[in-house]
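A protein record pairs a chain with a discrete description of its three-dimensional fold. The shape at a given residue is found from the number at the same position. Here is what such a record looks like in full:
>
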Amino acid sequence: MWACSYSAEIIRELRGKDLACWCPLDQPCHADVLLEIANRPLRSVETR
């Protein structure tokens, strides 16, 4: 379950931060995904 270990690292490093990237606004963005993981409620992370 590499995703769980990476989720913990993403939360630790990025929670509460702003990210910027060069993705087009009408395209999926890696920064949006990282921020969604980093800022989700902790309870949902702990139960996975």
